[in-house]
Amino acid sequence: MQTSSSPDTIQVEFFTYGYRISGVFDAQRRLLADVVYDPTTSYLIVNDAYLSPIGQPMTISASYTKAQIAKDKVSLILTMNLRDGLRSDRQYYRGSYKAEVVITLPFFEVTGQLFTSSPFKLESFLSIQAGAFINLSEATARSTFDPDVTYHGGAAIINTSHISCIGLKRNHYRGAK
Amino acid sequence: MAHILIIDDNYDMLSLLEMILHRQAKHQVTLCQGGHEGLEKAFKELPDIAIVDVMMPDLSGYDVVKQLREDPRTQHMGIIILTARGQPIDKQTAIAVGADSYMTKPVHMKELTDEVNRLLKGGIKKAGSVIPLFSLRGGVGTTTLAVNMASLFSQIGSTILLDLSPNSGHCALFAGIRPKTHWGHYLEGTETDLEKLLLTHSSGLKIMAAPPVPMQSGWFMDEQLNRFMEDLRGYARFVIVDTPPLLGQATDNIFKIAQHIIIISGNDPAAIQTTLATLKALSKELDRVLLIHNTAQPMAQPPTEALQRILKARLTANIPYDKLQVAALRKGVPLAVAQPDSPMITGLKAVIKTILS
To answer: What kind and span of H or E run contains B274?
Structure first.
């Protein structure tokens, strides 16, 4: 038995320009990633949102029962479990190719695994991305100004328009799955 | 069975934790739906362990833990931070502010109960509740009440009666024990194992006696007394202190760590004046003060309302003169043991009920 108030709610960390927002997303109707990737909506709602300045992530500066978050202003979203951060069409198949990448965002340097259906090509990756967001698995975000402060997530959803640099560490072929 | 305080703003989470820790693990559980309420209950009930959420609208869990650690009454309490904020920085912060343990939601039932058991078995430095009895005026029966109150507490849980008198205290003699060992040996450094200095009454009450004659080396220095109290609290659930009639740094330190401060007043003009002066001096601690009037001489008991009007404070108990006490004193048996239903003991039981409630 686990202490979880509802199986359909997930704890999510949002990082926007200057803020860390910890909140609960209600995934009863739609998965978090489906809402984030949906190009027809600009905002998403989180419950029990707690706000911390990026520079003082341990300080809770404000809290709200409900908060609306502008998707285009979010740089990074972290979920503890991988599946909580995946779209419904990627729950069982994420791609046969895995690339270990480093991505720089405002305030963060994120490392993680990027899964793709075809071999990852660094030169064209950002320019041919169809959506605004990409998924990383087993992600670690390190604070630019305080390298001792890190955040981990089973899944990370990254806003590509906030990426200033993407670097390839290793390329793997996982085989068809 | 331990007493566990759970502080979480989420009602569903509280219910779930209550089910795990109370119904299944059989612990006594107190639930609080906010940081301020949690602190209030922690200072009042002094639980063994607090399980604290971090994200709460009125006060963050980190602030709750900080305040628990800053207060001498709760600084030794076992504290588990249980939060949905599961990042490394959150764990570092939880430990930095003083939590013993950090767990992320959702947590498995077994993991939580294991952690609670781990803290109960050895992680927590036990700290008994300190309850000093005090009067600036001598002769109002402070030692008599302290001995009997300690005897009553020893029927509830392990209790030490500490006689802090610098000038030949009488607690041990009131209980019919010769003070062969006393805190003077600790002060001189001839014996630092407090357990060896404790005297045991046949009722089970332990007594830390005062030296039969004043020590040449003087009384406790501030730091010495703090260390002594910290060690002594590890040996019992309740430490009842027969406090000397002095207001100073040492008594201040005792009052700071006290769960409740019992002020004893008589009804002669000098006793009333000193009680008023004491209440004024303890104005910052009034929420923890319990005022008792004791009729120590054979005379009619003054009406409670009249005393409250004069003292401008509520009396927790108005204890009548009890002639049986004289006989008990001669026999060296506390009245609480010899005559548990006597009027004085009935009055003291009401005070203990207030303390425990």
So the answer is: helix B269-281
pLDDT for B300 beyond 80: no
Q: Please return the burial class of A164, using the count of CB atoms within 10 Å of its CB with bins 0-12, 13-18 and 19+.
A: exposed
pLDDT of residue B96: 81
Indicate the number of domains in chain A: 2
CB contact under 8 A, A11 and B105: yes
Task: Decide which of A79, A102, A129 is a domain's last residue.
Answer: A79
Task: Indicate whether A72 and A92 sit together in one domain.
Answer: no
Q: Which two tokens stand for residue A21?
A: 């927002």
> What pLDDT is stored for residue A75 in this prediction?
96
pLDDT at residue A120 tops 90: no
**Residues 106 through 135 of chain A touching chain B, CB cutoff 8 Å:** none
Q: Give the helix/strand (H/E) hosting B210.
A: none
Q: How confident is the model at residue A132 (pLDDT cuts 50, 70, 90)?
A: confident
Percentage with pLDDT > 90 across chain A: 59
Q: List chain A residues with CB under 8 Å of B17.
A: 3
pTM over 0.90: no
pLDDT of residue B126: 60
Instruction: State how far the Cα of A57 lies from the Cα of B235, in Å rounded to an integer.
Output: 41
> Does A106 reside within a domain?
yes
Partner-chain residue, chosen from B87, B89, B107, that has the shortest CB–CB distance to A2: B107
What is the rounded CA–CA span in Å between residue A140 and residue B26?
40
| Average pLDDT over chain B, rounded to an integer | 86
Domains detected in chain B: 3-120 (3.40.50.2300), 129-356 (3.40.50.300)
Q: How distant is the Cα of B43 from the closest Cα of chain A, in angstroms? A: 24
Same domain, A60 and A98: no
In whole angstroms, what is the distance from residue B64 CA to residue B107 CA? 21
- Whether residues A69 and A100 fall in one domain: no
> Is the same domain home to A57 and A129?
no
Q: Is residue A1 part of a domain?
A: no
The arithmetic mean of pLDDT across residues B137-151, rounded, is 88
Which pLDDT does position A174 carry in this prediction? 65
DSSP state for residue B300 in the 8-state scheme: P
The model's pLDDT over A46-96, given as tens digits with 9 standing for 90+, comes to 999 999 998 888 888 888 999 999 999 999 999 999 999 998 888 887 788
What is the extent of the structural domain holding A67?
9-79
Domain of residue A146, CATH code: 2.30.30.100
One domain for residues A73 and A133: no
In this structure, is residue A4 part of a structural domain? no
Q: How far is CA B306 from CA B270, B313, B355, in A?
A: 16, 11, 24
Residue A3 has pLDDT above 60, yes or no: no
Q: Which of B90, B92, B105 has its CB closest to that of A3?
A: B105
The Cα–Cα gap between A177 and A115 comes to 12
Count of C-beta atoms within a 10 Å radius of residue B173: 18
Does A95 lie in the same domain as A21? no
**In angstroms, rounded to a whole number, what is the distance separating the alpha carbons of residues B157 and B154?**
5
Residue A137 identity = S
Domain boundary among A36, A58, A79: A79
